[in-house]
Write a structure and sequence with these properties.
The chain has about 210 residues and is mostly helical. The protein has one domain. Helices cover about 80% and strands about 0% of the residues. The protein is built from 8 helices and no strands. Helix 4 packs antiparallel against helix 6 and helix 6 packs antiparallel against helix 7. About 35% of the residues are buried.
Length: about 210
């Protein structure tokens, strides 16, 4: 993603994985962090991502990050906010992956774009599922702590991806595996719950028929 830093194949993969995951958690924090790192001289963005280094983009991302910082910590409203951002985080992550791989062949660039969007979708889905789980809690502390942790992880992963892309990509990959495992467990639990409810309904109908 960072042409001036001469990333090789595995480093580029790690970078895309980490930044896409971070964007799935908080796209505004991710974009603002990349832009600020570029202005600090710690990052040489490729031509396809030069727009991120614009002060207008950094300022807009910073303002939106400030809005999200509070909106994402309000129980119930955070579910609406995250649902709305399905149409922001995933496309932006895909576009960043596309711009990051402009030096590759069209086939590899398309693959990177799809991967970036898919990784952001997984991160976004895990974030949303976690919110659904904690929102029924009567106290707001769990939402605040969870959201603050997501913000911190997004910024940290983005920074780490520019310095140690393989390590950052590995960390993001571990989180992806955890999300997949948890989501599969949830799906199985839901299926088991529905099967149990269906059996109870059939048994109830059978008892009513026998009683009649």
């Amino acid at each position: 993603m960072l042409a001036g830093m001469k990333f090789g194949g595995s480093e580029l993969v790690g970078l895309i994985v980490a930044v896409s995951f971070a964007a799935g958690l908080n796209v505004y924090a991710t974009v603002a962090t990349l832009g600020l790192l570029a202005h600090a001289g710690l990052l040489d963005l490729p031509a396809g991502l030069h727009l991120i280094a614009s002060w207008w983009v950094i300022a807009a991302s910073g303002v939106l990050f400030a809005v999200e910082f509070f909106a994402d910590k309000i129980p119930a409203f955070d579910l609406f906010w995250n649902a709305l951002h399905t149409f922001v985080r995933i496309p932006v992550a895909a576009l960043m992956a596309y711009g990051a791989t402009s030096q590759l062949s069209p086939e590899k660039q398309l693959l990177a774009t799809l991967a970036g969007g898919a990784i952001a979708l997984a991160a976004h889905g895990g974030k949303t599922a976690a919110r659904v789980a904690v929102t029924p809690s009567p106290e707001p502390v769990s939402n605040f702590v969870l959201s603050a942790g997501e913000d911190t992880l997004a910024v940290t992963l983005t920074w780490l991806a520019t310095q140690h892309p393989i390590a950052a990509g590995t960390i993001a990959a571990v989180f992806l595996v955890m999300i997949v495992v948890v989501m599969r467990w949830v799906v199985r639990a839901m299926k088991s719950l529905f099967r149990g409810a269906e059996r109870d309904l059939v048994s109830s109908k059978q008892r009513n028929l026998n009683a009649a």
